[in-house]
## 1
Amino acid sequence: MAKILVLYHSLSDCTSEMAALVAEGAKSTGDMDVRLVSVAEATAEDMLWCDGVAVGSPTHIGTVSWQLKKYFDQDLIDHWGKIDGKFGCAFSTSGGWGGGAELTCQTITNMLMNYGFLVFGVVDYVSRNHTLHYGAINAKAPRESYAKKASHRLGQRLAEWLAVYVDGKKESHPLITRTEIVPAE
Amino acid sequence: MAKILVLYHSLSDCTSEMAALVAEGAKSTGDMDVRLVSVAEATAEDMLWCDGVAVGSPTHIGTVSWQLKKYFDQDLIDHWGKIDGKFGCAFSTSGGWGGGAELTCQTITNMLMNYGFLVFGVVDYVSRNHTLHYGAINAKAPRESYAKKASHRLGQRLAEWLAVYVDGKKESHPLITRTEIVPAE
Amino acid sequence: MAKILVLYHSLSDCTSEMAALVAEGAKSTGDMDVRLVSVAEATAEDMLWCDGVAVGSPTHIGTVSWQLKKYFDQDLIDHWGKIDGKFGCAFSTSGGWGGGAELTCQTITNMLMNYGFLVFGVVDYVSRNHTLHYGAINAKAPRESYAKKASHRLGQRLAEWLAVYVDGKKESHPLITRTEIVPAE
Amino acid sequence: MAKILVLYHSLSDCTSEMAALVAEGAKSTGDMDVRLVSVAEATAEDMLWCDGVAVGSPTHIGTVSWQLKKYFDQDLIDHWGKIDGKFGCAFSTSGGWGGGAELTCQTITNMLMNYGFLVFGVVDYVSRNHTLHYGAINAKAPRESYAKKASHRLGQRLAEWLAVYVDGKKESHPLITRTEIVPAE
């Protein structure tokens, strides 16, 4: 049973709502141990514990918040070079579409790559006009159907990759289980 | 009278629709000479001619299309190091929000920086949930009101910066002319 | 026995030299099937065949060359959504340090993420002042000791992750086999 | 007489050494008012004061340090939307080449674009193998000749663009004053 950490910073609860949905998606495959932790409560141990992580931040000035960054710069730094090979992905909310949420996800996956993680986005569309190729993103809180699906799908995909690559369950591969990439709607 | 080039590649007409709106925005201030040129017809001379450029590409596999890139790699390469100091910005359409349009704009502004250009995004929101902080982006063709405004605003802002910095009209500065950053709606 | 593709575009042979070294590194663990293919000769079948890929491009105007991009835009596009879950990494040469090779690697890993790949960089330093956190990079041809090591290490790490995650050989994990992160020199 | 702010965060003095060199370059044209301020001492007023800024950060985990980010997230946030149109550029030191300094510069210029700044890199090479296309970068402290030149050139170019675009001195344009792009060495 692989272990998933959903680690996030949230200021106005938009990102914490996403985080809860990501955690739900991570649990949806039924065979993952999932921890949902805000960066204010997180310790290095949380990251050591997990096999895979979804990291979320509000988009502040086009990239991760300083509060999230501080965790990677300070709390986790003694473990740099000792936790390679975990899996990781990103999510972010911004004030508006075009406001930098993709760039924030890019910074997060860059941070995870720096720690030696294998990172991914998701090919699937969650509505005709919404996808999460570089991580789940949304404008403001994830209240729309597509927004909920995007966060949920990110957690689900993380669970699927861990099932395949950590737990050795090849039948969990999305190429086998996925029924559609772009929903008919 | 400063000169603006709107240069774009389009495969399915989504980006060419944006380009037309960007050109309209560039003309809206009334004192710019504007050329709208697809990359298939563009020559190096177009770039030499202009004081500022808005460059658009469809988001293909999360970044600029090879057709647009070819123009910068081949057609323009003899002028590298000889056209520094122009102004530039970016726009892109993708299949869906979260599909990489911000990353495409980032690649475009990186390409322009490589040629020595000064690049910018736009602070303004064009609806409560839509902005163009790193360039104008949209999911599919720009048919919605916010999508039209985003493209238009990009061209307008380019015209404003050229008015201020090339034509020396300080009264055209958006901090003076702009009435609102986030529309009341 | 997992399968590794080293796919590259090269104009002045700098990137093809890197590619040969990456392929050598990929073979160094002794249990991988390795193909070294230039993008001019590559077909979609090469990508379908592999479990993991190292993709290399010269840094042209701060990002991937149009020739490499064309392969991902055209040759491979029919397989989008059908090849998720492979592993990938990047390498690039540029005219000089600070010339955009990291940005090129970033574009390449973004392209691979778009196709559903799990991507990574390498934590290890190959000399006191050289590492490959986002892919192996170099200024011009990889003739220096550190440059050769960087390319070699990238291929080796790809082989190690495939050994661990595709072939299920947990003893190949770099956290077990790696003796040092920063060489004493 | 235009005003230049060199704003930086430094932990081990590598970035502060760069900052001093950037400030020196900014003064080298003889007609700029230059402030050199560490982020610990900086207030929002510093940014309001300047016409152009060079922002420096150590590369921590592949992007800006949390300390620098905090300034942009908190200290400056009340002025978002009120300081558009300034000019900006970036510099960074990392532990090694390939360690993310280009990505850090990219994050910095993204942050500046978010505040409505016009950002740039430098076309010039400072040695056969070193340039600063996306900002000045170095592995560790800038002690080598090329490293000193890169920081110096960044400040100089910022001064030149401000001379041209803010002070209206067209004769200061690098296309006029620059004697070579790649030094003969």
## 2
Amino acid sequence: MASRFNKLFTSIKNTGFGEQASQQGDRLINRDGSFNVRKRGLGFFDQLSYYHAFVSMSWLQFLGMVTGAFFLINLFYASLYWMVGYDQLVGLEGTTNFQKFIEVFYFSTQTFTTVGYGKVSPVGTWAGLISAIESLNGLLGFALVTGLVYGRFSRPVEKIIFSEKALIAPYKGGRGLMFRIVNARRNQLTEVEVQVIASMVDSKRNNGMRKFYPLELEINRINMFAMSWTIVHPVDKESPFFDMTEKDLNESDLEVMILIKAFDDTSSRLIHVRSSYKYNEIVWGAKFVNMFDGVNDGKATIDVEKLGEYEKATLPTGIPETN
Amino acid sequence: MASRFNKLFTSIKNTGFGEQASQQGDRLINRDGSFNVRKRGLGFFDQLSYYHAFVSMSWLQFLGMVTGAFFLINLFYASLYWMVGYDQLVGLEGTTNFQKFIEVFYFSTQTFTTVGYGKVSPVGTWAGLISAIESLNGLLGFALVTGLVYGRFSRPVEKIIFSEKALIAPYKGGRGLMFRIVNARRNQLTEVEVQVIASMVDSKRNNGMRKFYPLELEINRINMFAMSWTIVHPVDKESPFFDMTEKDLNESDLEVMILIKAFDDTSSRLIHVRSSYKYNEIVWGAKFVNMFDGVNDGKATIDVEKLGEYEKATLPTGIPETN
Amino acid sequence: MASRFNKLFTSIKNTGFGEQASQQGDRLINRDGSFNVRKRGLGFFDQLSYYHAFVSMSWLQFLGMVTGAFFLINLFYASLYWMVGYDQLVGLEGTTNFQKFIEVFYFSTQTFTTVGYGKVSPVGTWAGLISAIESLNGLLGFALVTGLVYGRFSRPVEKIIFSEKALIAPYKGGRGLMFRIVNARRNQLTEVEVQVIASMVDSKRNNGMRKFYPLELEINRINMFAMSWTIVHPVDKESPFFDMTEKDLNESDLEVMILIKAFDDTSSRLIHVRSSYKYNEIVWGAKFVNMFDGVNDGKATIDVEKLGEYEKATLPTGIPETN
Amino acid sequence: MASRFNKLFTSIKNTGFGEQASQQGDRLINRDGSFNVRKRGLGFFDQLSYYHAFVSMSWLQFLGMVTGAFFLINLFYASLYWMVGYDQLVGLEGTTNFQKFIEVFYFSTQTFTTVGYGKVSPVGTWAGLISAIESLNGLLGFALVTGLVYGRFSRPVEKIIFSEKALIAPYKGGRGLMFRIVNARRNQLTEVEVQVIASMVDSKRNNGMRKFYPLELEINRINMFAMSWTIVHPVDKESPFFDMTEKDLNESDLEVMILIKAFDDTSSRLIHVRSSYKYNEIVWGAKFVNMFDGVNDGKATIDVEKLGEYEKATLPTGIPETN
């Protein structure tokens, strides 16, 4: 594993991020896992993924969008009926133009949703045509909504939460870079794999050039992700942080990039999650508070609210024992 | 395989279950494969997966839920029509308020399902608005139901059944830990992989601390899961059970955790199945009864009802021959 | 690869097929890839997969089933309306009972499909209730049909055809067991992997016991499956067929089982295909006819109808050169 | 990797493309990734994948097809109503046959979409039957459209663009074959793997026979495909291009085939992309222009329009340094 990584990440080019891309203060991966990158020259529509947007917005937003579109579309069709003349519709009872428009608007909704009470109905050729197209439009619209609804249902629902800070913590007589994750959903994740890559300007060794280092982990794969998981990079002789002080770390413009892969039982799909910590999101000399909350009703319990909690700790100066 | 396992499971931390989580009498994995864990501090909605619930309940429950929701929603809309006044609807024939409410309730169902006979229809502005919203609501509701129905269809339908007990059985001149599985569906599973992990307090070796041991299997992968499969862990010198007696086993608070991975031909998806046996679900000195039931009409036949059947057997004291 | 195979298949148990299952004349895998196995003791419903049946039948059968169900359901509801009395429906024009039943049947279809012209409509409480339930039923029915239609669309559409016979053919100065496959669809298959396993009673070596042998292949993986592929097992010193004559082969009750795995570009899914050849489907001393049909309009062309065509060929007595 | 490749591709047979398929001037893979192959003898329907066609056409085409089908189907049903006689429909107001046909056409659309105003409605047995079937037809049609719409949504939306030309460019003191790719969508691709295979007639070594060579790459896998990726095959001693001149290359009928595999975060699916460069799409002595466009608003920016831009460059005559 390590050797493959070393091959992949010794030079900046290999990550797909260019050298110039990594200026002081920028991050390559946002905390929500998206890439902090812009592509110029692509058309607006090329870049947008409407489907993805509709599928990942909240249900409230989604219902709002659908309802809004519903009213706008009916306003449009009501205007069309008005343009061809209200005499092409029978059954209107209103006497003023406004009253009639309201009635025609409702007739439009009855056509779009295919309710079609028939109290009002088209008699003229144009109104007949418009209402035929509108009902087709309505059915296509609801085919679309049905597709989006299922899309919302079927995508993996994982929500892996990361501790707010990463820590340089005491570890086996030495120190380790640690962060903690928990699965905030009830779906069951298995075969979880983690890769961690450090991107930093290491003034001591590389003449101020930015380099990428894969970080060796204590464990990079667990079979079942039932509780929380503290991911640990032991700061041993192989670590790029081996001889660094707190000051070095802050000046290195360090970004710790995290790639997680897991199998989601509920959706039977592989999921990928990314995040990153910048140097100012890493606390020097601290350790995480225990999340375990005893056994209640025969169930091992963890307190998710303590995920990010840590306390000051003195760092040993030795090298972590590796077994 | 073994070496990777050993790396992963030598210490308790590595499974994602904390040390304290494993007190006497608790199990980590329930027999249905869910984790026996509670996460505090997550909101109620964060943890729930409605989609998963609706997709995994029985068809009877599902139809009951849908029908119940249908009547409640129509009751709600019928009340709205009542609130804006029955004079906003034409075509009602009832004379008492109760008769009218029944009629309005049916009008509501005709709107929600978009049948819209038109015998009763809205004339006032408020009734028009409510019925427009109700028909939109109806279509969204059925988009939802359609999505759920497809979700129910498309998820893998595997049902791997485990023998009720695991056995310490005679095996090749020595003994083996055995359990038996069968695929209770007609879908065809291929590339089936099994991992077995023992979680136990081994008083002889680890000062009463709980440890996790991956168990070596006679075979851990089969290409086709057509009949039944007896999974065997040979109790040889490498086995954590090597020098244990029946009494040791019962005092070890043993839990044998099983992780199965397979490819489901019907849904073209990978599936993961879990289960576990606690020490009191393991029978010392027994062997499984043959499930094979001869060849009938040219088809090899097994009797699934015999899956869990076993009979007493004397255990040899030797070490299983491994080839 | 070979070593893993050897481990998996040296004994009968390892395939998941029991020893007794392999009596003379039975095949383990049918030519269509299903297992030739019966499981007793499972309930009728446990074993059936309705979804799979509806998704894999022909479109003609599917439309027939849907139309048939449509008419039966409406017959049922028409009978319900008849039972509560035709006076609960207004708008009927028929004078005889039969005429009225026809009208009510059509009213039922208009309710079930939610057309709801309103020419006939319910007035009584019972007819109102029945029509409310029927329209809900209709919508649920079409949610079901929509789910099935999408299920039919989205499953992989691969259709790998096998040559009718396998051949013992001349191969590199010796002989080889060969069969030929082609992808009969326009979808593009990549990363195709093949495993071949022989199940036979080898009277010379194993006292008449049935054994399973993985067969080494000349190539067991191709990156692109664009044309046809002749899969070759060289009969060299490692082959279980090395010293067998045509007569030995016929007496061995040989079954050559084939497992194919590929990635289907169109559905973005992994597919698995199985088939098998029994000893009487293997031709001794023959070779396949070339399927290549020249370059037409700049496209390399193969003639799929020649897939199974072969001609007599003299078998060399040497050992195939392996490089 | 290399060794496996060498095994797979040393002879022409191994790619699934026959020897004869590779005549001068043909390409095996089209630039859009499809195979340049024709299969004779398959039925028209066997080869077509309607679903694939409907799912991959543009939205405009799709809506056009649906609308066209809608009008044709209604024309068909309107003709049926005409054939059974307009006296089986009540509510028609037209006086000429043409006027009536228009009305009946609209009645048909109201039935097909299940709007069913009821202004016109069937009274006769035949019109009742036709309208019952038409409404069923309409619902099945929209089940179909809903399935197709979701199919359009859920397929991976990747659009990897290749530089128009591949280059023989200066590389680490020697030369390299290079091409450049970018992901033109906003979806995030991870775990991108590339395989490159050269198909050529190497007159110096193989007596003019076509051979397939896997090409070693500087890097064949990146974890994140956030920006652009220049894929490089170093022309070192192992390269089939090592002692070739520009003239040799043009006479070799070279085709460079590219297979890309990646994980698409948005659809949670694996995707496969193919393309190829023929000898006349490879520029000798040129290098790519930098696409990096500075950091704007804290985002590293690349200019996608420069993907294919290159400039003349002198090729060193040395061998690339490999580390």
## 3
Amino acid sequence: MELLKQRILTDGVVSSDNVLKVDTFLNHQVDVELLGAIAEEFERIFQDKPINKVFTIESSGIAVACFVAQRLGVPLVFAKKAQSVNLEGDVFATRIESYTHRRVFDVIVSKKYLSAEDHILIVDDFLANACALDGLIEIAEEAGAIIEGIGIVIEKGHQRGGAGLRERGYPLTSLAIIESMNAETGEIIFRS
Amino acid sequence: MELLKQRILTDGVVSSDNVLKVDTFLNHQVDVELLGAIAEEFERIFQDKPINKVFTIESSGIAVACFVAQRLGVPLVFAKKAQSVNLEGDVFATRIESYTHRRVFDVIVSKKYLSAEDHILIVDDFLANACALDGLIEIAEEAGAIIEGIGIVIEKGHQRGGAGLRERGYPLTSLAIIESMNAETGEIIFRS
């Protein structure tokens, strides 16, 4: 998606060979107009699928997933990190390791909101090692939900996550795939 | 807001005299159509203010704040809980106590995204003891930003947060204020 790639080139900061900071527009400050365009693109890609729910994980996936759910006219469900006293009863649960936060999270989804009746589109802002996505996929499959698509805003193609998911046959689409980044020069090269 | 109150009566669950569960439509599964209507209502209320940014805190504030920012045509900034390796440099920071999670969080906002130039609308899904809101207000005031409004979806009027903020003169509007809840009968009474 050209608009997104241009924005990454303009405002993204390569702070190490593995870390691309896009907090100007995606995951701290959020450019809702850009996210609207991103959601429109995901709608174009996935509109022929019988999606009845968008599924993401808190926190930074929520913004983009909201707009995608709005475009598709379906509810959003977001998985929660760690147990909260307000979420009781039966839950699907797994653990994921966060590269960004350098820790392990418990991730839960109430069984009320995901079932074998659901045809879901998984949406997230970033895909690197796919730890978070693997967790969401595990929960979705435990629930018996059909994964109709996986939509990612930015994939770091030089890390192993995306390749692994494609090998396993998941219908993954990333709007911008970064082939390589150079922290010294700041250069970002996209996969064409 | 009548539509919201009806939804709370239909789908809200009083699980103790202090806990109202609305995870069917607000903070686990998200009804994006309802959130669109909520955002329209906040736009109506705050449209005459010179708001240039919507400000919230992860995670459950993000969904509603996204739609409000979209209606107002301004960016969203969300405060982050705990330090992430991707957020370096100068930040505004405070600590808040979460009733829901029964723990204390560090909350940070990059100084790049909040300044004395900003006229902000603070948006959150819930207001009870105002611990989270107090943290957001503290950060906003430290940044020198003007708080043009505070928009809350559900205020638990029987807890002290809202009254305290109104006494201190903050322009607080809650779309539904709960006067009392009864965990035994499930009854929910709104402030008129």
## 4
Amino acid sequence: MSPDVTLGEFEFDCGESVPDLRLAYEAYGEFTGDNAVLVCHALTGSHHVAGRRRRDDTAGQAAAWWDDIVGPGKAIDTNEYYVVCANVPGSCYGSSGPLSEAPDGEPWGTDFPAVTVGDWTRAQRRLLDELGIPHLHAVVGGSVGGMNALEWAKRHPDHVDRVVPIAAGARLDAQCLALEAIARRAITTDPEWQNGDYYGEEPALDDGPTQGLALARQIGHVMYLSKASMEKKFGRRSAGMDAARDSFELDPAAGFFPYREVESYLDYNGERFAERFDANSYLYLTRAMDSYDLAAGYESDAAALAAFDGELLVVSFTGDWHFTVGQGEELAEAGRETGGRVAHHVVESDHGHDAFLVEPEHVGPPLADFLADGITGRAVTDTTETDDGGDFAPVHTSLFSR
Amino acid sequence: MSPDVTLGEFEFDCGESVPDLRLAYEAYGEFTGDNAVLVCHALTGSHHVAGRRRRDDTAGQAAAWWDDIVGPGKAIDTNEYYVVCANVPGSCYGSSGPLSEAPDGEPWGTDFPAVTVGDWTRAQRRLLDELGIPHLHAVVGGSVGGMNALEWAKRHPDHVDRVVPIAAGARLDAQCLALEAIARRAITTDPEWQNGDYYGEEPALDDGPTQGLALARQIGHVMYLSKASMEKKFGRRSAGMDAARDSFELDPAAGFFPYREVESYLDYNGERFAERFDANSYLYLTRAMDSYDLAAGYESDAAALAAFDGELLVVSFTGDWHFTVGQGEELAEAGRETGGRVAHHVVESDHGHDAFLVEPEHVGPPLADFLADGITGRAVTDTTETDDGGDFAPVHTSLFSR
């Protein structure tokens, strides 16, 4: 099991409080006073960033989810940096959330306060205080973890030198908001959800509306892949007779049609996910992502970032339609507007949003060099360096936004 | 009510039969021997193509769905052409399908045979025989209706002079197959589905798993719009307090967050759709679309089209990711390969797949001119005419495929 800390009473942005916020976290390397790097996990990730051994507390894709990037001699080199990652409040891997125990001894369920990315950031700040880390060399995060990193630049601009949002943006667009909303409805319309009050005597990750949660995850998988990567990975191929077709009850007429590889992939991964993640946490964390808006409380994204005078590396992927290259460029533009030192490093990739997890060979080098040398790092490129940088600019006219 | 015909015993591609296939259809204009145009409706459309008055049998978007295109003096001019449209077998607007009465006096439900686009085409051929129409001037269809049009060129190449697939392709790609599969699971996991046996004493369109069907439709709406059109139409705006938030039970934590316009749109349209469409038909028709492959039984798309020596107009839309411009170009290439007279007319549009319904001003002129003069029609353009035609070519390297 990972260490955890209890941070006392914590008031969430929504105004509600819990009497004693618990955070599960993991730390790697040795703290030397100026080498702390905070890693922020994505929606369904955990504090368990790296190290493929042991662990009962995380599983599947939440376990050692960035082992290719974080470790001794890797891009975020734990021989050099002291790396900390905390499971965010509202999640289900040891930190306080719907699955954890409320003061009455029962799981919180949906009585747990609504959480925001701002809450995560404030909780991380308190964790670092506990650990005696006043200042961060860097905050790095992918997807909604990238929003979490941005929130550090906005909320604690003097506490961090370098910020790296990867496959992220200042806010979700309407298309992604729609898909997230549908995914939540798949959970809440599952009769097993029971208004969030579905936990058994020994509350477990696989309690509750497993079919609805599996459906929600299936929608997520489509968002995380690109059209091209799905075509390459699955095409229209039949999964063959061996493939389990029993995850979901299918319509009787289905018998005449093939069970395709893409369905088999979705069913398998949906089912596995429902075993390892709490459905209420999925509702909470997607709401936090949906509601995040870098500009909230400010005039603009640029204004929100104005007080941060560290360096910003935005990493985006050409095949990502969850957070597009256009959104990455908007973010970089916002950083540049107030004279910030910013690089927008675009990775050519067909892997879609998942690229930040599955292309360590393209993410590692710019990340390592940025941590060492900032935006002048050797492997770091910037869209302003190339003639066609303008192609990436405004999301509304970008091809990616169609 | 529309006319309907009973066509006697009909054996489906799956090998099962119904004793007396019924087709509801609509005809507009006067038949003069060589002026018949068959219109093929999309997934959830009906035979009721045009004419905004009367009608108890179709509603919502199924009613007069192409009234901007079909009618006196319109692009498909009913003063000139005899226009026929039939509700496809498996649908729920009067033709035989799961909702219709089986020989035992009960609704067929999922005992109705699986249907294919080939079945639709053969049924249409028999309907035209009944009506005394041996030969068609043209077959026109949008989305899966475009696949239906292609199937005419493949199956009855000598019975039609001009074929117009609009916002269509030779087959669905893996990304769309995935979303369709998830949509079906939303229906079959709704406990009200009851293995398809959900009809009341007086079977009606709104019987059954309305929440699952609404969710399926919500997924469809995302597929029919583009990223850009959703951003413009909804952005991240809150729907305001007036918006009904009661279509779906929401998680209690939702109270802290806005109910957004995009959610309100999805909820409203999902609910309306569940009132007007049969859930089993949705399963049947999406399976027909998913399984369609122009090349089936042939070496290639080109081989499947080789016997057709009429003219082919492929119309595609730049913002459509359900059937991309790249897929349109692949189709046109297949037609060109065997020396066919083909034009691929690309419409610049941010409207996504819906463009074929909502941009009559861009669809009408090339369609009208093609019906009159073939690919030499004045408003018809072709990708081979422009230098950048190559940009549209192979779907795998197209930006749209990312």
